Amino acid sequence: MTITYEWGDSLYINITNRCTNNCTFCVRNNQEGISRGMNLWLEREPTVSEVLADIQARDIYKYREFVFCGYGEPMLRTYDIVEICRCLKNTYNIPIRINTNGHANLICGQDITSQLAGLVDAVSISMNANGKEYQELCQSDYGEKAYEAMLAFAAKCKKYIPQVVLSVVDVMPDDNIQSCREIANRIGVDFRVRHYQS
User: Fold this and answer.
1) Distance, CA of 196 to CA of 198 (rounded, Å)
2) For residue 2, what are the CA distances in angstroms to 38, 42, 98, 178?
3) C-alpha to C-alpha distance for 57 and 37, rounded to whole angstroms
4) Minimal CA–CA distance to 186: which of 155, 159, 157?
5) pLDDT (tens digit, 9 = 90+) per residue, 74-126?
């Protein structure tokens, strides 16, 4: 079971297969679930202790950052992430990033962004579309309210997390990318176009 994996000089942490989106472009829709030559499907969700043990078995000091990112939406395990981050921060002086779809507050039924303060150094939120196309592309379990909730999450993260990024995949038309960039600028967060990984 692949709990951690290397990409570049970062150590990625894969803790769930579950997701609140079913994005049309997602690697999860490939039959084998292969991305970057790796199959990250988990047989089951690892416990906090198993995640920490898997991390600690690595040569930690060669990594530039820890990144919560796998086949699922990591914030479905928000409270486990908080616990893992607290342990990592107490042991290592290495930044922590979460790659997320921005639905954590919907998932938890409350604003959890303050719980990430001092633990998470960066959050990268998959924006993927402007408002009118988000549900069509991302097919969220939360329906039409998912898009505004994602933007609200980004704005709230700004208060507690040093770097907040809204990102889109480069398969989007240029005018849509520009529209998303303007929205990110309006709420005062960074913007990034990421390469689509098939």
Assistant:
1) 6
2) 9, 7, 18, 36
3) 22
4) 155
5) 999 999 999 999 999 999 999 999 999 999 999 999 999 999 999 999 999 99
d(CA 177, CA 166): 11
pLDDT recorded at residue 171: 76
> Do residues 32 and 63 make contact, with C-beta atoms less than 8 angstroms apart?
no
- In whole angstroms, give the CA distance from residue 68 to residue 86: 14
Chain centre to alpha carbon of residue 170: 17
With a CB cutoff of 8 Å and minimum separation 6, the contacts of 74 are 13, 15, 16, 68, 81, 98, 99, 100
pTM: 0.93
Task: State residue 36's pLDDT score.
Answer: 58
pLDDT at 198: 43
Q: What is the CA radius of gyration of the chain?
A: 16
CA dihedral over 171, 139, 43, 48, signed as positive or negative: positive
Spatial contact of 165 and 190, defined as CB atoms under 8 Å apart:
yes
Contact 129, 85 (CB under 8 A): no
